Each structure stands twice: as structure tokens, then as C-alpha cells.
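Supplementary material to the annual report.
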Amino acid sequence: MAPMPSALSYELLAKCSVTKARAAILHLPHGPVPLPIFMPVATQASLKGLTPEQLEETGCRLCLNNTYHLGLKPGQATLDAIGGAHKFQSWPHNILTVSFQMVSLLKLAKVTEEGVKFLSPHDGTPMLLTPEHSISLQNSIGSDIIMQLDDVIATTSPDLARMEEAMDRSVRWLDRCIKAHKYPERQNLFCIIQGGLDLDLRKRCTKEMVERDTPGIAIGGLSGGEEKAAYCKVVDTCTSLLPEKKPRYVMGVGYPEDLVVSIALGADMFDCVWPTRTARFGNAVTSTGVLNLRNASFQNDFTPVEEGCTCVCCRPKEDGGLGITRAYIYHVAAKETAGAHLLTIHNVQYQLNLMQRARQAILEDKYPAFVKEFFGKLYPDKTKFPAWAVEALNGVGVDLLAD
Amino acid sequence: MSTTLSDLPPEMRAFTILKTSASFGPRLGSLALPGRITLETPHYLGNTSRGAVSHISQDNFRKNTSIGGVYVALEDFVEKLPRQTPPLYQLESPENSSSLRDFIALPKDTLLVVGARRIPCIPCPTANTNSALSIYTSVGFRQISAEDYAAASQKIRPDIVVGLADIPYGQPQPGLKRIDKMSDRTEEWTKELVSQTHGLDKTVKAPRASYQIFAPILPLTKELQTWYLDHLIDDMLDDISGLAIYDAHFLADLPAQVKDLPRLSFDAPSSPGAVLYQISLGMDIFTIPFITEATDAGISLDFTFPPPKSEVSGGEDAGGKDTLGVDMWQSEHALSVTPLSINCSCYACTKHHRAYVQHLLSAKEMLGWVLIQIHNHAIMDSFFAGIRESIARGTFDQDKLAFEAFYEPELPEKSGQGPRVRGYQFKSGQNETKKNPAAYKVLNVPEESSSEAPTPDAVAADLEKIGFAETAKP
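Predicted assembly:
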């Protein structure tokens, strides 16, 4: 197979001398982005009430859209007519489209070699969704990074034979995706490593996927309720087998602890709806943990959501911010959508800022110290450190419990 | 007797009338409070809900609107009364600033007007008492006494406080006895507010409060509120800086002594035409619920004043009138890359297009309402600017007629579903259907699954047509 054209370049800037953490610049068609990176999820071409400018102001230069949702609304014809998702949502920066979350469809769908068969819920007509459809849609969307269609089953499934079948099928579907991909010179196709929690399957899949030489590599099928320790083993196993000069994307991961540990395990890119979803429930992500600002204990708390945070919501008026207080978020949480927008801005910026700080630490070769400081702030009591994190970090040379 | 307002030196008056035609009719004015944006009138105030103009977060308010003043209802902030001090009252702000302004993160130069009740307000089942007004908070019906209201005004220091009015909302037409009471109570309550401003000692020079008071004018004839009006003029005129008018028709009967005061309409106009009508009666400042109502209905306002000249006036051609707004739910916009309104320079129109807004509405994405709300306020800004220019030119009456001939009288009917309705925005009645339909249904029952996101909800042929998938071969 001829080497696949790539529309990105991965510029490695620094590697942690202890852990597997890396800092890099990923040059994409719509501009460079720093790695490691957290990508907010604008499922339906909109990030939960924020204008593209508001999203831009958080520092975001790469966000997600969902192929499946955009395929239904507005549909391929509209996307073609308007000239792709960037124009459609007036977003001048990069977009990554995740493929269909087949897990959520499984009850309705039957996966065959051809594709995913399902009954149209509306009139019962049997429908077929193939890797070729998925790529064609993503070509119409025009996203900077597109994902292969994969056969995802829950990692918690005990059916090893089915897991193996899904893994092998995902490899075969990758070949079909590569073949169907019309614009490899301007859209980067990422493969998705499957294999559940079985490390042998993951190793086999990684080898197969790496051979296909896609511009980037994703580790999929995780973040579905599996044990965190098992998750870490899969990430650690896969990254060890991946080429150094390609970005590594762990799909669906977004809790701050997971990000910090996954970076140490050698992952570069993450996405999750959690920070934006939880904002709409009045939850603020901060370095000391998640604050439920709907709790009455915050009603008279006139301090910012997080002291020192540079987001427009938290920044004091004197510094050109809004000076929004916890008490005001309490006042509007779940009552006015403007409150959700403010907290969404904060949470997205928290995540991006966390990645930026991690990156700076890697550049200065201080990542282990950064990890310790991060966990120390989150859990003032060391005995409360999550065991999975202690274990995973130990595996890459960081003793979280040592002084 | 008391001095009339025009006896005061101009620098002491916040409101200046720039142009008025005789004693009755449209007028131009300017409301200038120290440190605030000067509101050229006629104009409108942004209507807030819990401190924010609906859908518009405070950063968007600064960046993407030109709203010069806002109306805030105290009932949005006092859930815990009387058992607990409301959080807002506990916020300490520097003496020369408003704690309410700080709390809701309102820009420092935006005019801040406070009244007791939301506009429009939800009728309360409990009647007002001699000393207290019934209000509706997010946790239920409460009462706020005139004394508490005055104290709250002192505490939160807005620019303008609208006095309490005893209006029996949701009650049958009041009888004469009740009308007497309305007038009596409103007088008492206004007096309470005024006396709190100065303290009991009227000789004290520096008033304790820096806010101005707008006195309510009840939705009654002049005769039926004579008692109140006489006291207002005789005893309180020096302390009153404006009037809040509950029935625009009263402007014709306004006593001469208060004619030069700015007039704030609490007689919510239902359409742009109704705004023009009230202006023709001499109204200065408006609170306009139909802006947000149109936004919630997915209708982007689309009108100018005076109306465009190039087209043939619709009036001559029956049924040919232009609509005042565009229903953005309609699928005809799905491929339209034109702005919401041609020539509109708002953020939504310069950065986005109809196709995106239509998608956002049908996908129930909050940004759809954000963009329409930004646009609808921009349309109102131009509408009022056009009105002021028209009055200055002396062509308001003709322009108003032309507007009525060109546009339909009311906004288009809503066709799509609005955003989620919150408890404090409505009062449920008996045998009502759910206000907010369930967003999710059981997914694993194929016959019934018509849930929002994860299930393709189109017929197979449509799915194939939009390139989503193909019909499976048997």
C-alpha cells in the first residue's frame, strides 16, 4: 500500500525524562494547535450556547463535531451546498469529527461486515450505514481530522470472541475508509485501535493499525465504565507500540485526573462532553475539585468561581473580565441559560488551561512535579489519592505518595 | 406650593426634553444620569430575567449588544424573604457603586432600573395587603412590604427605582372600593419610598440614596386616582424623577406639573405598531416583552422605521403587507446563506446565516436563541433610532402611517418550540399539559423510538436523500 498523504505535521518539542509525556505542536489545515490538548465537544456544530468567538476566547483552536448528528441535521446536501462545517458554523479553526457512537445504537443496530444495519425507527425500513458513508459525510463536513468507522462494543463485554471480531473488523473497515477517503491531502484520517481491555488484542490491533500509516492514531472503545486501572493499562500498552512522530488521541476522556495521568502514559489528545454537560448542571471544574454551585452553601459566596482563573467569567472587572461570583452562578444555575453559558466558558477554559500548564511543565521537564502538585491540590489528604492513579503513575516512574 | 420641574436649573435635571409638539404627541428627550450612557428617548430598556437579558451572557451583552439600560425585577432576587436575608442584600459594594450592578455583572455605564415585578408579571393568588405587594419568586409566591422595598433600594442602589403600585393582577375588574384602595396604597407606598430616600428629616441636604424614583401611575382614569395624583404633586414632586405609566392612554390626562418628567411604559406593547402608538401619545422609555417572546418563538424581527420606500406600499395591494419577523424554524431557510435581515449589522447577521440559525433551532441548540436575541435587540435599536430621527424631522405621523401600511399589524404566529420554560416564568393551571415535553424517550423500543439525538428520526428515503445511509439490499 502506498504511504498515505498527510495534511498534518507533528512537531515534537519535548519529552518528559521520567514519564512518557510529550509536548508538541500539531500543525493542522486550520492552524497549529498545542499538544497535549483537550478538545471541547460541539456535537451539533455548536458548543452549548457559546458563539464561535466565545469558544475562541477560551483559547480553543480545535473542537469536535459529531458526524452522526451532522449527517442527520443539517444533512449532507446542506453541508455540500454551504461548503462544509467550518463555513456552516463560522468556525475559522480546526474541527475533528468523531464518527458514529454505535454503542448507543446497538440495541437497534446489527453490525455486519458490510456495515451497520438498523431499522429506520420512523418507518421500519432496513438501513445500512457503511464505512464509505461515514467517510463521504466527513468529506462533506470538511473537518481537519476525520475518524474511521469502527466496530465498537462495550469494553465491559465478557464476550472475547465478539471483541476479537470487532477488533479485526475495525481494521478491515479502516482499509475501506482509507480507500473511500477523497481528500487525504486536506483531511487527516485517524485510525481507531480497538480490542477492549484485552491487552493482547490491543497489541495486535495496534500493530495492524500502525502498518496502515494514518496521520494520527486514536485509542477507542474506552471511557465506557471500565475500571480506571484497566483503562490505564490499555493506554500504556498502546502508546508503547506507537510511532513517536504521530499524535495519539484517547477518545472520550475528560476528567482532569484522567487527563493528567493519560498524558503521563503518552497520550496527546482528549475529548469529552463532561466539562460542558456538567456546567449546565451548575458544576464548576476547579483545581480543588468539582463545585456544585447549585448548593445553598454558595449562595452568599461572592468570590469568583475559581480564584486566579483567567476566563472571562472569573477574571475581575479591573482586568477586563466580568467578575462573576459563585453566588451569581448559584442565582442563575439551571434557571437562566446565560448562567450555563458562563459556566461552560469557565469549564472549557479550565480544561484548556490545565493542558497548557501540563505542556509547560513537560517543556521544562517538570512533569512529575506538576502531577504531584495537581493531585495534592485535588486531594489535600494523600490517603485519598485514587489507587488507580497512584499505580498508573508508579508504572511510569512517578511516586505520587513520596514527599 | 411645590416648584415645577422646569424651575430647576437644567444641570440638576436628568431628563431634558429636546423636542415636543404642543402638549400631547411624540417627543424627543435625553435621560442623562452621571456616569451612565445617555439614553436618547424614545428608547427601550433591555428586559432582564434574574439579572441577565434572556439568552445573553454578560460578555455577549458587552460585545454584541448596544443596550443602554436594563430593567431588573427585585422579585428575581428575594426568594428567601422574609425568613432569610437574600444573598443580594449581603453583598457589600463600595459606597459609590451598586451592589446589584456588581452582582449581575452589569457594565458600569449601563442604566439600571429596578422595579418590584417582572415584565410581564405572573398574577399572584394572594392579594396585596395594605403594607405589602404580592410577588412571585422562583420558589413560590411571597410578599414584600413597602418598607422592605425601600430598604432594598437603599441597599442595592440602582440608578432608578420604580415605586410599588397596587394593581390587582389576575383579579376581576376592581370595584370602586378596591380602586380607592389602589390609589391609597400606591400613595402610601410611594411616600414610604420617598421618605426613605431622604430620611425622616427633610432638611437633611445630602440624600442617603443616590437613586432616582419613578412614581407609578395606575391603570385608572385621572378621576379615579385624583387623591394619589394630588399628593404626588403637592408633597412628593421634588423627589420624583419620572413616571411609570401602566396605561398609555393616561398620557392624555397627565397633569401639567408632571409633564416634563420622563415616562416609562409599563403598558407592555404587543407589537412595533403598539410602540409607535404609545410614542404618538408621548411615551419616552419602554420595556418590551415581545422582543424576547419573538426570540423564544424563533422569530427574527425584520422591520425598519420608517419602512423601506423602494417597494410599493403593501396597503394598496390587499394582503401584500410585509411581515414584522421571519420564522427561523421554517425549513425553507435550511440552505440560505443570507443574514437574518439584509443590511443588519449585528453580530448574528454579519457572522452567521439563516441556514445555521435554522439548524440550531431544529437541533434545540441554545446558540440559536442567543443569535436571534442579539439580532432582535439590534433591530429594536435601529427601530428606535429611526423613530427619533423621524420625530426630529417632524415626519413621525406620516412615517407611522407608512409603517402601518407597509407591515402587518402583529408579529407572525409562532410555529416552533421555544426553549425550556422555567418555573418562575409561568403559573400552572389545572389540567394543563406539560410545559416542557420530555427530551428523551426509551431508546430500545424500536416502534416508539423517536428520541432526539441518537436515533435517526427521518424516514428511510429522507435519510438516503441526505446521504446519511442507504436502503439495505435484502
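Chain A has 14 helices and 16 strands.
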